[in-house]
């Protein structure tokens, strides 16, 4: 994000925004999409197909209003916005047709009678006349729209000759700079009322010369002349495709590099306008060579939020981004295709071969522990000042963690023999005709995880066992750890030639952008905070998300609880690994246990373990001097903190759990079997235990594999 200095809050159209100081030395184009948010001076080119209606007579007012709103928002953020617009011919055609119809109807009504009105024909309208009739109306419309946001707009009409005359070029440059200095948005267009037709051989002729023969070349010329940071070219297609859009196997090109033209087959030009995609690409490459970044996108049907211009400036994956810097590795789209092919090869292996890969990965985790811990140490040192203590604990790896991971992986390998190809149901439909339901891989999984490098081998083993391709997106705080663990995973996969089945996304791809790759990804599994899960569920477009909620786990201490069991279970539930999702967060105590030796022992144990206690409302009412009262009974602390609340009965404990819990894991401690059975039957949670620690809620303990991986493996084996 941009650093905010001397920020001031302003308001327009009832929407608050922050004015951001933006500065950048022009010279080189941006290398990555994420850098586009630093763009200070921006040119937006509106193609004829964007500005005009489908019938080519009149303007698409709804689209124009949205574009003006976005440009105004960026202008009011402190950016310098310029618009190169089409539309004068279409607007003029609408006006002239109306005038001709009106004139003809009057004349024919006078001379021929009403019966011949239906036979009136509209003559072919000359484009220059349409432009002359439409320029003033188009500009009046822009002025009216920008006025709604307290922004002034100014019209500038140019021709190719204006760029060949040095004095005119200087005048144009000075005018534009002065308008930008006064916070005015220049609206620029070719003067189609007087412009001559383009010369047949006139084309882009290098970095110093560009012929202005359409608004694409005009926008590129202005962008370079004005040293703009970003040129946004809006048309009626999503961006640049490797073959004509609509053709079989046509794929949108996310990033286009100079020299890639040979790999692209251009189709016909748009329904209106003078240029086609080939003209746009040539103009974009010319501007890129001049130091201006370029994005070509769809301005008629925005793909993400309906605000294509602001989405591009925010660095979202919209349209085709032109860059001079090629990444060292494959793009995420290429990684998705590699994972798809690798996953299919993985699924074709024998179960024993997939198990062998996982066993080998388990051995590598222990054999290469020094390299793993060294990489993890780098992550911890870099994150020490940025991460809170609970996240640091999740980020940390140790010899015992690696040993535990290896044991968990071996369990996955042992239990995965029938993960793929197991017949769940066989039905005889008719003689010699049988129908089988068989477990099969899902396809390509995208697993997004935060601060948990141990998640990488867990999920990788799970994907290998179930024959799925895998894309992994880890947090940048664990970059070094993830890199070495992914390297070991691919080393294990290589023993049977399926190295590409598991891919680690190392590009600057935003999580939200990954969630839009519906043609490459079949299931998204987020592992992290509840906020991460909610964000991914909101961002995912057409891809199922296997999410989870918070780990707000409860332990209820009944009046008939064993003194010995209570302290051991509560200690293990809260203190063994407080950052885990299955750690105790709220301790419910029956009212009759207050001021008893058992209650004192619980409090003393928590103090010895340095657990910070927060009092629930009812518990606080019983105390003269209580601990800090809890802010919310629905809190996942993830640290050596917990809430203590008092209940009057097992039913009140159940009601509390249902109201404030997350249906993860809840426990009763009691020696009364009838009370325990009542609790087990009535608590609606994934795991409900009697006289056991919440930490027992773990795939490793269940024999399914470590952590959430075990739960997911169970779902995959059941064909869910």
UniProtKB/TrEMBL annotation:
Signal peptide: none
EC number: 2.7.2.11, 1.2.1.41
Aldehyde dehydrogenase domain: residues covered: 332-594
Pathway(s) this gene product operates in, as recorded in its UniProt entry: Amino-acid biosynthesis; L-proline biosynthesis; L-glutamate 5-semialdehyde from L-glutamate: step 1/2; Amino-acid biosynthesis; L-proline biosynthesis; L-glutamate 5-semialdehyde from L-glutamate: step 2/2
Organism domain of life: Eukaryota
Entry's Gene Ontology cellular component terms: mitochondrial matrix
InterPro entries in the record: AceGlu_kinase-like_sf (IPR036393), Ald_DH/histidinol_DH (IPR016161), Ald_DH_C (IPR016163), Ald_DH_N (IPR016162), Aldehyde_DH_dom (IPR015590), Asp/Glu/Uridylate_kinase (IPR001048), G-glutamylP_reductase_CS (IPR020593), G5K_ProBA (IPR041744)
GO molecular function, one term: ATP binding
Coiled-coil features, chain-numbered ranges: none
Protein localization: Mitochondrion matrix
Keyword RNA-binding: no
Catalytic activity line of the entry: L-glutamate + ATP = L-glutamyl 5-phosphate + ADP; L-glutamate 5-semialdehyde + phosphate + NADP(+) = L-glutamyl 5-phosphate + NADPH + H(+)
Family annotation (PROSITE patterns): GLUTAMATE_5_KINASE, PROA
Pfam name, any one: Aldedh
Principal subcellular localization: mitochondrion
One GO biological process term: L-proline biosynthetic process
Alphabetic keyword roster: Amino-acid biosynthesis, ATP-binding, Kinase, Mitochondrion, Multifunctional enzyme, NADP, Nucleotide-binding, Oxidoreductase, Proline biosynthesis, Transferase
Sequence ranges assigned to domain Aspartate/glutamate/uridylate kinase in this UniProt record: 40-298
HAMAP family documented for this protein: ProA, ProB
Subunit: Can form homodimers/multimers.
Function field: Bifunctional enzyme that converts glutamate to glutamate 5-semialdehyde, an intermediate in the biosynthesis of proline, ornithine and arginine.
Family designation: In the C-terminal section; belongs to the gamma-glutamyl phosphate reductase family. In the N-terminal section; belongs to the glutamate 5-kinase family.
PANTHER family: DELTA-1-PYRROLINE-5-CARBOXYLATE SYNTHASE (PTHR11063:SF8), GLUTAMATE SEMIALDEHYDE DEHYDROGENASE (PTHR11063)
Protein name: Delta-1-pyrroline-5-carboxylate synthase
Organism name: Chelydra serpentina
């Amino acid at each position: 994000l941009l650093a905010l200095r001397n920020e001031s809050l302003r308001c327009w159209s009832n929407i608050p925004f922050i004015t951001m100081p933006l500065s950048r030395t022009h010279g080189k184009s941006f290398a990555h999409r994420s850098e586009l948010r630093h763009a200070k001076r921006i040119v937006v080119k509106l193609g004829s197909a964007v500005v005009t209606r489908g019938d080519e007579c009149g303007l698409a007012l709804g689209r124009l209003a949205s574009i003006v709103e976005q440009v105004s928002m960026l202008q009011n953020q402190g950016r310098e916005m310029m618009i190169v617009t089409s539309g004068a011919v279409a607007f003029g055609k609408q006006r002239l047709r109306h005038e001709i119809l009106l004139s003809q109807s009057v004349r024919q009504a006078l001379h021929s009678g009403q019966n011949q009105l239906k036979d009136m024909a509209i003559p072919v309208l000359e484009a220059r006349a349409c432009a002359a009739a439409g320029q003033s109306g188009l500009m009046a419309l822009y002025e009216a729209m920008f006025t709604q946001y307290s922004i002034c707009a100014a019209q500038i009409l140019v021709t190719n000759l204006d760029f060949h005359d040095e004095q005119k070029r200087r005048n144009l440059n000075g005018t534009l700079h002065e308008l930008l200095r006064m916070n005015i948005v220049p609206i620029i267009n070719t003067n189609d009322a007087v412009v001559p037709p383009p010369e047949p051989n006139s084309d882009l002729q290098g970095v110093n010369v560009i012929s202005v023969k359409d608004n694409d070349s005009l926008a590129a010329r202005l962008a370079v002349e004005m040293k703009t940071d970003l040129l946004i070219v809006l048309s009626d297609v999503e961006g640049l495709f490797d073959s004509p859009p609509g053709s079989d196997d046509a794929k949108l090109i996310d990033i286009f590099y100079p020299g890639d033209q040979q790999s692209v087959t251009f189709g016909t030009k748009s329904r209106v306008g003078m240029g086609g995609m080939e003209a746009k690409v040539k103009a974009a490459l010319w501007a890129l060579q001049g130091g201006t970044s370029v994005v070509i996108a769809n301005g008629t049907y925005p793909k993400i939020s309906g605000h294509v211009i602001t989405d591009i400036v925010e660095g979202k994956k919209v349209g085709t981004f032109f860059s001079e810097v090629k990444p060292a590795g494959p793009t995420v789209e290429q990684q998705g295709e590699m994972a798809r092919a690798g996953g299919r090869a993985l699924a074709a292996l024998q179960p024993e071969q997939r198990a062998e890969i996982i066993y080998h990965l388990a051995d590598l985790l222990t054999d290469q522990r020094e390299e793993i811990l060294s990489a993890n140490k780098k992550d911890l040192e870099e994150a020490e000042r940025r991460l809170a203590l609970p996240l640091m604990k999740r980020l940390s790896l140790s010899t015992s963690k690696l040993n535990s991971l290896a044991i968990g992986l071996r369990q996955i390998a042992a239990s995965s023999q029938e993960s793929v190809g197991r017949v769940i149901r066989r039905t005889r439909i008719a003689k010699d005709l049988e129908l089988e339901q068989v477990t099969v891989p899902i396809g390509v999984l995208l697993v997004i995880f935060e601060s948990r490098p141990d998640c990488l081998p867990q999920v990788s083993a799970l994907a290998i066992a179930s024959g799925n391709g895998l894309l992994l997106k880890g947090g940048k705080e664990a970059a070094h750890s993830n890199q070495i663990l992914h390297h070991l995973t691919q080393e294990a996969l290589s023993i049977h030639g399926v190295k590409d089945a598991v891919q680690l996304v190392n590009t600057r791809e935003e999580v939200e952008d990954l969630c839009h790759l519906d043609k490459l990804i079949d299931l998204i599994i987020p592992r992290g905070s509840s906020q991460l899960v909610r964000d991914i569920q909101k961002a995912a477009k057409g891809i199922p998300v296997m999410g989870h909620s918070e780990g707000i786990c409860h332990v209820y201490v009944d009046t008939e609880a064993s003194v010995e069991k209570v302290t051991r279970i509560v200690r293990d539930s809260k203190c063994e690994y407080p950052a885990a999702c299955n750690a105790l967060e709220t301790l419910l105590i029956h009212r009759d246990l207050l001021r008893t030796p058992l209650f004192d022992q619980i409090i003393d144990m928590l103090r010895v373990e340095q657990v910070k206690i927060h009092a629930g409302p009812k518990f606080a009412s019983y105390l003269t001097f209580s601990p800090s009262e809890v802010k919310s009974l629905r809190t996942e602390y993830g640290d050596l903190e917990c809430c203590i609340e008092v209940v009057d009965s097992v039913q009140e404990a159940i009601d509390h759990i249902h109201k404030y819990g997350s249906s993860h894991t809840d426990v009763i401690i009691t020696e009364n079997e009838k009370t325990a059975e009542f609790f087990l039957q009535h608590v609606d949670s994934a795991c409900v235990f009697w006289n056991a620690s919440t930490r027992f809620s773990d795939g490793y303990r269940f024999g399914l594999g470590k952590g959430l991986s075990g739960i997911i493996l169970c779902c995959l084996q059941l064909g869910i």
